[in-house]
């Protein structure tokens, strides 16, 4: 595991040192090592297609999702309004009409 910081522009973990700078090979962003210590890490949430997600967005489920401990299924195309992004195993806290409170992963949703 590398101790180097992630790229502040694209969140790539493949950064490397070049003299007094850090460099991201994916987006070619360069930033000084001194500034990297002051940058606070914030997690970037993206949907299955790479679109940035923020609290309050509306998303659509892109795959049938089985609900643990139940015979119910969240069907593909289900619209989920007013999502809340959280750190943890699942990235989204939400309420789905007819089902109730749920936690979803960003890899199974598309921003509307």
UniProtKB/TrEMBL annotation:
Gene3D superfamilies: 2.20.25.10, SH3 Domains. It holds the Pfam family YjdM. Residues 4-32 form the Protein YjdM N-terminal domain. Residues 46-112 form the Protein YjdM C-terminal domain. InterPro entries: YjdM, YjdM_C, YjdM_N. It comes from the Bacteria. Belongs to the YjdM family. NCBIfam families: phnA. This is Alkylphosphonate utilization operon protein PhnA. It comes from Ferriphaselus amnicola. The lineage of its organism: Bacteria, Pseudomonadati, Pseudomonadota, Betaproteobacteria, Nitrosomonadales.
